[in-house]
Amino acid sequence: MQWHNSPARYGLVSILLHWGVALTVFGLFGLGLWMVGLDYYSSWYRSAPALHKAIGLCLFAAMLLRLVWRFLSPPPPLLDSYGPLTRLGARLGHGLLYLGLFAVIISGYLISTADGRGIEVFGLFEVPALVSGLPNQEDVAGLVHEYLAWGLVSLSVLHALAALKHHFIDRDVTLKRMLGCSR
Ligand code: HEM
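A: This is the predicted complex of the input protein with protoporphyrin IX containing FE.
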């Protein structure tokens, strides 16, 4: 399989980024839900949020890479068999997924940096707090982060259902080409 995208198929870089990001988003969502219920005496009380933040920042790096790669190696166009409504839905859905991903990550960053402290990434380096001290920053960003995370995961589920509908009902190659087997 080739690394770059072609007019007929996704290449390895886009496929790995797509599935890596998808797994990470669902994983971070689960981790987030679990960690907010931990009590002070749990051994994960501090390490789970630290892990959530470090993985979130790696996700941000992957999303930047994904955007750059999209520009360097444009994805294959939508299939000719799509009707106008499907085209609109796919473009809107993909655009919202990109937007939602960045919005969730940025709101999460703003929760952590509200008190002026940077974010440690696996003890390797620290991402500085560029924005802090806004009025009620931690509470507002926290609320926005929570609602956006639910919205993003719901949209991802709808997106996955659409991909499965293309595969099992329309029987086209939409899902196959994102799995790297378009024949
Ligand atoms: C958090 C989870 C997910 C996110 C954020 C996500 C995001 C995206 C985005 C932004 C695209 C547009 C192409 C691109 O620019 O890379 C895309 C394409 C695609 N996704 Fe996902 N995705 C997720 C999960 C899934 C799942 C679970 C499935 C399958 C069950 C799936 C199937 C597809 C397929 C088949 C395409 C290609 C559509 C086409 O070629 O027209 N995605 N995804």
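The chain has five helices and two strands. The helical segments are 12-35, 47-72, 84-112, 137-170, 174-179.
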